[in-house]
């Protein structure tokens, strides 16, 4: 049974200024006083929310509390949905840090079960990585854990639990983390879109059945409701002539997105927080799998008074409008696109020596055969209405494997490494997807250079921490093993991870 990918009726976007989802950036461009007054007036009612200016410069201490919350996830005047949330809200607060500046984040657990926080994409000490049993003891109900690290890289990252991941992430525990550059690229606004995917029942409650064994063997738990910054997406108010830096974060359990910006030409300037050569996406389609992030520069060159859809058309036959850019009726802020560089400053990533690099091969195996043609998009199979709950996975029976070995669950103390890497040595890892399903493979503790896909070099100098493999894909990545510890490598379709598509790399 195929799930419906839909967005219900859209209520007004709430005012989330305190949560840091948008910040105004002052560029080298010097508008006149009149232009400043005009743009201020034009953006007051914007549905794109904005934080206190300069927050990251003043704050390096945070406290977040995972616990119960409520969210309006269903349209039509329905009641709020019980969720699990950081600080009572979904997504959690945007944490803004400064590159190279120490951060201290206290996590106080108000859930009725153990939790941890994984700081996804941050190159940090192993003890701060948030994997229960492997890198830290779980945070018990009522207890707290202090995470301390200094982010070496600027970029767009996110945070989420690594304990009972299916339920905790699937019930709302996720938030964006932005590490700001000392000198950001010129733009009029810096906007975060945290994209979420929910499976709701007819009453608007989160549907049970996490860990369904048949779903886990196919596309995972894809929902029937998509949210943008925790709400059903309404119009995003913009003004012609402005430049926006747009940070996309996909926090879904399994939903892959392919976004098309009608009437616009977004430029990708970073992948998973790591700067790349600025480029337009191939075919105008932005592919965003679970856990992946993209930083875009979008020049608003539409006509005043018009609306332009942002369309997600990844799943065959299930395209829908995610949101729309709604242009104010005012004259353009500027006649031509901002004449300023888009290239972000490079982060201090060690460059792998490909000549001396040791080579490793990882084969992704298992799952069920595909039930349809995967060309041009994806299929959602085994969706909805199934019984069986957690099935065999609750007892550790694996569905997936890497090189014939499986690790189930979220992390535990006796996870033996599949590969041991010498510290500070270079490595090339070839991942072969021998399955019929898509897998966003995430490596903790590192960013890697994406070298090739199916023998073809990957352009635009791309680094990532999560790489998406289509069925039968072969992808080569390279990195320097400069961060000691036991590090997870796993699929970020969370059902796949918990059902065996996970391993550990040890750096000594």
From TrEMBL:
Location of the Plastocyanin-like domain: 77-182, 190-311, 417-507
Keywords: Metal-binding, Oxidoreductase
Alphabetized Pfam families for the sequence: Cu-oxidase (PF00394), Cu-oxidase_2 (PF07731), Cu-oxidase_3 (PF07732)
Segments passing through the bilayer: none
GO terms of molecular function: copper ion binding; oxidoreductase activity
InterPro entries in alphabetical order: Cu-oxidase-like_N, Cu-oxidase_2nd, Cu-oxidase_C, Cu-oxidase_fam, Cu_oxidase_CS, Cu_oxidase_Cu_BS, Cupredoxin
Protein name: Multicopper oxidase family protein
Organism: Aminobacter anthyllidis
